[in-house]
Each structure stands twice: as structure tokens, then as C-alpha cells.
């Protein structure tokens, strides 16, 4: 490592530690939820059970227009956020060209750090990374919802299914695909939450660290300990 980089890291230890803490919160929480959703009561766990019930009922219907409409509605929601991510990215690219004006404005904020032009650009690029990540998650979820529509349309009617095992196989595969799509959508939404924390880095590193931890707390509270989850668990269908 060059002496210039070493000197920079020594002079900006707090910013480096804040960035590492943020990335640990971001990646750590996504990994944590992916593992815990398999067998721990949470929104993703409960919704997968409801999706299995939905697909099981869909296979008993000759006319599945209502089911494909449900998927189409989910696709519209994902498409909206994917489009919003592109608009935000366009705004951030524009922001890079107005760095001096925004830096002067932020300098008047209480407790605001005096960032160099390079530090400012790193902070903007962190936001860009989050929204690029969100865009890829939303578009992949959108494609997976399209696959769900095809799988529902291609599944045979219950009277044509040779056995309960065959029906269970269709239910399991379609509901897993729907949960995969929902998982990507959720990760895209979580990126929006963490982007709110990343905005605080423009003020100072301590605020950045505090809001990163707060975002993890809010997400965990909503997904694992909320009243919404309690209501869903009261009516949780069998696997």
C-alpha cells in the first residue's frame, strides 16, 4: 500500500471505520434475514406460508385470471421502485456536477464535518452504489414475478394432476419462485432504508454510525417483532 493511501487512512480513521461499520450493517442484515427467514417467525417466513396456500388454491381453479392479476399487481409495485431508482441515480449524477454549491450549503449545518472534494464524491458514490444495487434487485425480482405468472398459467388443473405428490411439487416450486421474487424486492427496499443512513454521512461520521445502527434496529423491529407479524402468525396456514 502506497504511503499516500496510508497517510489518508490515518488522517481519516473515523470516516473509514464509519464506512466499514455501515457496510457490515448492510451486508450483515441482508445475510441475517436470508438465513433466519427459513425457520424463524418473521414477515418473510409467514408470507412464504401464505404464498403456498395461495398457489395451492390457485391450482384448484380452472380460471386463474384473478391469480395472474395478483402477480401483475406485484409486478407494478416492483416496476415503480425500479423506475424510481433510475430517477434517483440520475439526480445523484447531477449532484456530482454541483458538488461545490452543496458542500458550501452543508458547511453551515451544525456539527457538520468539512469534507474535501474527494471525500464528498466518495459519499455520493456510496449512495449511487446503494441505488444501483436496489435497481438490480428490483429488476431481477420483476423477472421472477414474470416467471411466476408463466408457472401458474402452465400448471395443470387439479383434476389432471396424477397424485398429491405432483400437486405438492407444483405448489412448492411456484411458491419458492414467488418468495425469491419477494426477497429481491425486499432487499431493494432495504437499500432505500440504508440510503437514508448514508445521507447522514454528509453531516458527520458519528451521525452516520448512529443512523446505520438505527436502520438495522427499525428493520429488525418491523420484520421480526412487529404487530403486523403477530397478526399474520395468528392465522398462519400449514406448510
Structural notes for this entry:
This protein is mainly alpha-helical and 239 residues long. It has nine helices and no strands. It has helices spanning 3-11, 13-36, 43-58, 65-96, 99-106, 117-154, 164-199, 205-224, 227-234. It is elongated, with a radius of gyration of 22 Å. The N and C termini lie far apart (54 Å). The model has no long low-confidence stretch (mean pLDDT 86).
The backbone outline, from C-alpha atoms, is elongated
Helix content class:
over 70%
Point out poorly predicted stretches. none
Global mean pLDDT: 86
Q: From the helix content, strand content and strand pairing, which structural class follows?
A: mainly alpha
How many β-strands, per DSSP?
0
C-alpha Rg (nearest Å) = 22 Å
Biggest beta sheet attributes = none
Helix and strand run: HHHHHHHHH
Put simply, the count of helices is 9
* Straight-line distance between termini: 54 Å
Beta-strand content estimate: under 5%
What are the defining features of this structure?
239 residues, mainly alpha
Amino acid at each position: 500500500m502506497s504511503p499516500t493511501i496510508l497517510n489518508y487512512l490515518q488522517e481519516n480513521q473515523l470516516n473509514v471505520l464509519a464506512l466499514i461499520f455501515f457496510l457490515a450493517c448492510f451486508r450483515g442484515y441482508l445475510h441475517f434475514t436470508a438465513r433466519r427467514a427459513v425457520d424463524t417467525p418473521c414477515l418473510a417466513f409467514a408470507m412464504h406460508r401464505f404464498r403456498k396456500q395461495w398457489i395451492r388454491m390457485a391450482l384448484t381453479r380452472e380460471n386463474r385470471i384473478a391469480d395472474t392479476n395478483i402477480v401483475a399487481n406485484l409486478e407494478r409495485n416492483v416496476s415503480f421502485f425500479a423506475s424510481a431508482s433510475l430517477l434517483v441515480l440520475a439526480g445523484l449524477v447531477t449532484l456530482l456536477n454541483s458538488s461545490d454549491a452543496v458542500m458550501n450549503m452543508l458547511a453551515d449545518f451544525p456539527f457538520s464535518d468539512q469534507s474535501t472534494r474527494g471525500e464528498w464524491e466518495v459519499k455520493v458514490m456510496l449512495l449511487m452504489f446503494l441505488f444501483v444495487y436496489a435497481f438490480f434487485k428490483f429488476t431481477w425480482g420483476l423477472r421472477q414475478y414474470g416467471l411466476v405468472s408463466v408457472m401458474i398459467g402452465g400448471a395443470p388443473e387439479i383434476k389432471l394432476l396424477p397424485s398429491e405428490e405432483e400437486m405438492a411439487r407444483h405448489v412448492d416450486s411456484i411458491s419458492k419462485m414467488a418468495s425469491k421474487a419477494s426477497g429481491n424486492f425486499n432487499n431493494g427496499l432495504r437499500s432505500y432504508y440504508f440510503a437514508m443512513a448514508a445521507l447522514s454521512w454528509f453531516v458527520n461520521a458519528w451521525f452516520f454510525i448512529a443512523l446505520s445502527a438505527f436502520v438495522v434496529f427499525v428493520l429488525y423491529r418491523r420484520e421480526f417483532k412487529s404487530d403486523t407479524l403477530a397478526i399474520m402468525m395468528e392465522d398462519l396456514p400449514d406448510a
